[in-house]
Amino acid sequence: MMRNSGSPSRGREARWGWGLVALLSPLLFGCPTAASLRSNITVTSLKDPYFPEPYAVTFDRCVYQTAADGDRHVLAVRAGQGEGGEIRQYLHLHLFWKPRPGKTFSDPSINDCIAEYVIVTPQGSAAYSGTAFVYPRPLSDGRLRCPVERGNLRLETINGSPTEVLGDAKLAGELIATEDAGLAVELRRLVARHLSGTPGEFSPKSAP
């Protein structure tokens, strides 16, 4: 069960109308091996600027795609049951490849990043976009480790009638992604549809 890790002065467990509590779990601490690493982020809602509400999210699956221009797209998905039915969360990080001055052309470095976050519920969905700093590096097993820092999200689109929204939010954590271009493209399309306000019935068959 997720515990709200916000200000102790609140002294309560956060309750969202969407039932997101059922999907959120504490971040993992310590020094796990590469095989045990998981994709975790903390989304801090600033809906009430005096009492920020941090929520930890562990994703079920995370994949990435490297585009022809060197940009990387990292996609993460979390699915589960909440009040009233299934709830899904999607995170898309678009990492722009940029070499550091004085290094070789093929040496990727710090990436500027566009972040997109979507929460889909039976009542509707809310889509957010913003920016973050991501520092990708390969793991020994071929996966991509992506620490995420100083992310900022803002509500862009509401589809249907969700009962609760985050408002402005902060984003931080780490994603561990496996290369899977096909699924990454499908998830990118899904996120884009929610952001554009036309989610339709699209749902990637290979996602959890």
Topology:
Layout: E1 40-45, E2 53-58, E3 61-66, E4 72-82, E5 85-96, E6 111-121, E7 124-134, E8 137-138, E9 144-160, E10 169-179, H1 181-196
Parallel strand pairs: 3-10
Antiparallel strand pairs: 1-2, 1-10, 3-4, 4-5, 5-6, 6-7, 7-9, 8-9, 9-10
Walk me through what this model shows.
The protein is mainly beta and 208 residues long. The protein contains one helix and ten strands, in the order ββββββββββα. It has one helix at residues 181-196; strands at 40-45, 53-58, 61-66, 72-82, 85-96, 111-121, 124-134, 137-138, 144-160, 169-179. It has a seven-stranded mixed beta barrel. Strand 6 (111-121) and strand 7 form a beta hairpin. The chain is globular and about 40 Å long.
Strand order of the largest sheet: 3-4-5-6-7-9-10
Q: What would the average pLDDT be, to the nearest integer?
A: 77
Low-confidence stretches: 1-30, 102-109
Number of helices: 1
Instruction: Compute the CA-based radius of gyration.
Output: 17 Å
Structure classification: mainly beta
**Element-by-element helix/strand order:** EEEEEEEEEEH
Features:
208 residues; 10 strands; mainly beta; disordered N terminus; single chain
